[in-house]
Amino acid sequence: MNQTAISSISPAALLAVLQAGETHEFLDVRTPPEYASAHVPGARLIPLDELNVEAFLAGHKPGTPVYVLCQSGGRAARAIELFERAGCEDCILVEGGTQAWMDAGLPVHRGVRTVLPLMRQVQIVVGSLSALGAALALLVSPWFAILPLFIGCGLLFAGITGACGMALLLARMPWNRALGQSSHCCTPE
What we know:
With 189 residues, the chain is of the alpha/beta class. The protein has helices at 11-20, 32-37, 53-58, 74-85, 97-103, 118-139, 146-161, 165-171; strands at 8-9, 25-28, 38-39, 44-45, 66-69, 91-94, 109-110. The chain has two domains: 8-110, 3-Layer(aba) Sandwich (Oxidized Rhodanese, domain 1); 118-176. Helix content is 46%, strand content 11%. The strands form two sheets. It has a five-stranded parallel β-sheet. It has a two-stranded antiparallel sheet with strand order 3-7. Helix 6 (118-139) crosses helix 8. The protein is elongated, with a radius of gyration of 19 Å.
């Protein structure tokens, strides 16, 4: 893995780049429902779990900046690591992702929100499993305390590494994939 620091850009600085018309590529690596609910104009959707780095790089002109964002930055950083492993050093992380872009009051394309954002889904599942495990430990058997312990360890791991297994699992669920279109794929036709 590349140990160099990931280059980054603030949403306001990126807006200036976009408005200047400089040559660039702009990727959003969130899930299709997240992208459909709100996305930065000009961002191309390629979900992280569908990202084919080699196919993307086949059409990439070396030296052209590739701005990468997700909801808050974690998935975009993982995408950039994949690009760097493939030898592409042109990627730039959009600091704070789409959320920071919206918080700054910058323009977004809004669609119809049909699915809860991925991190809210994670919070609901983790909270439900933790509460269930604690209730079962109190009411049925203390052995059920293993469930909230396991969930807590998963949260600790996610916080330390930035990789959330629950988010990756939920992103693959059918309600997080179906949009009626598959124009986001980067594989050659």
